[in-house]
Automatic annotation (TrEMBL):
Protein name: SirB2 family protein
UniProt entry tagged with the keyword Cell division: no
Protein biosynthesis is among the record's keywords: no
Keywords: Membrane, Transmembrane, Transmembrane helix
Coiled-coil stretches noted in the UniProt entry, renumbered to this chain: none
Organism: Microbulbifer echini
Highest taxon of source: Bacteria
Transmembrane segments: 45-63, 69-89, 101-119
Pfam (any one): SirB
C-alpha cells in the first residue's frame, strides 16, 4: 500500500510538472525566446514524461486498473496520445505559427480532460 501511494504521488507530481513545463516552453516560444532549446529545458520534460508514464504503467499493473473495465482510463490513455501529438506540433519550429497555437490549445484542452478523468474517475 505504501509503495502504491508513493508511486501515485510520483505520478501526480510528474503530471503537474509535465503541464508546467509544457506551458513554460510554449510561453517562451510564443514570446520569441527559443533559447530554452539550449538549456536543461530541452531534456527535462522528456525525463519527466518518462517518469510519468513509467509510474502510470506501474499503477495500472499493481493497482489492477484494467482500461477494458474502466472506460475513463481507456479514454485517458487515448487523450495522452493526443496530448503528445498536439504538443509535438505546438513546439515544432517548422510548423506555421497559427497551426502551433491551435496545436497548443488542443494540447491544453486534452490535458484538462486527462486531469478531469484522473481525478473524477467518472463511471461512463
Ligand atoms: C499527461 C498524462 C497524465 C496525467 C496528467 C495524469 C494525471 C493523473 C492524476 C492527477 C492522477 C491522480 C488522480 C487522483 O487524485 O486520484 C492520476 C491517476 C491515475 N493515472 Fe494518470 N495521468 C497521466 C497519464 C496516465 C497514463 C498514460 C496512465 C495509464 C497507462 C495513467 C494511469 C493512472 C491511474 C491508473 C490512476 C489512478 C491511481 C489511483 O487513483 O489509485 N495515467 N493520473
Amino acid at each position: 500500500m505504501f509503495t502504491y501511494t508513493l508511486i501515485k504521488h510520483t505520478h501526480v507530481t510528474a503530471a503537474a510538472l509535465s503541464l508546467s513545463l509544457f506551458l513554460l516552453r510554449m510561453g517562451l516560444e510564443l514570446s520569441g525566446n527559443s533559447q530554452w532549446r539550449k538549456t536543461a529545458l530541452r531534456w527535462m520534460p522528456h525525463a519527466n514524461d518518462t517518469l510519468l508514464l513509467s509510474a502510470a504503467i506501474t499503477l495500472v499493473i499493481i493497482g489492477s486498473w484494467n482500461p477494458a473495465i474502466f472506460p475513463w482510463l481507456a479514454i485517458k490513455i487515448a487523450l495522452v496520445f493526443g496530448y503528445v501529438i498536439a504538443g509535438f506540433f505546438a513546439l515544432r519550429q517548422s510548423t506555421p505559427r497559427r497551426i502551433r497555437i491551435i496545436a497548443a490549445l488542443l494540447a491544453m484542452v486534452q490535458i484538462g480532460f486527462i486531469f478531469y478523468l484522473a481525478i473524477q474517475k467518472p463511471a461512463l
